[in-house]
Design goal:
The chain is α+β, with helices and mostly antiparallel strands. It is built from 8 helices and 10 strands.
Length: 231
Amino acid sequence: DEILSGKTEESNAKFLISELRDLGVALRLIMIVPDDINEIGSALADLSSRFTYVFTSGGVGPTHDDVTMLGICKAFNSEMHRHPDIEKALRDYFGEKLQETHLQMADVPFGSTFTTVEGLRWPILSYKNVFIFPGVPGFFRQKFLAIKERFRTSQYFLKLIFTKEDEFAIAKQLEQVANEHPQVSIGSYPVFDREDYKVKVTIESKDQNITQSAFQMLLALLDSQSIVHTE
């Protein structure tokens, strides 16, 4: 709710976009949902069935609006239960200062999986292919970085072309290259505050040879005098 209401600036998605890109993971969708059990449950059930991994951020604290766990139960027809290992860890950590609100952190969907990482006080929780992270940016980053390598896959190969022509002048050439290289993703990004170039074109795929082929084809189709530089 705090993201949707504008009270808090979202930063975890921006971090995750960069990290997944570096890992070679194709990020397909970002959703921001309210603190509503039915909304969360519906979203997770759908996303879990369509994608390899789903990452959640926030809603895992002790207050009334922390309903991510209940949303997971809703999505997978599970029930909450107090996990004995987490309860013991909480009791050991808080000792005489322990309160019921602390113990609520041990209430998780039945069937959850825990990943213990050296250096982290608390395990990383997942349910099937859904990885559940805290919303506090520092904790979110710490936990994701601790297990990021498990998601690594083949890298992306990227080529860049900077041209003085605008998008209207190169649209047909981009389409031609895209049609002949369906495995390649081509993007064009106009800028309006620079004098050295007007459009940055990106060409990328997970096959280096195909990326290079599309790059060379587009170079041949564009006016060589308009090209500022390539990378």
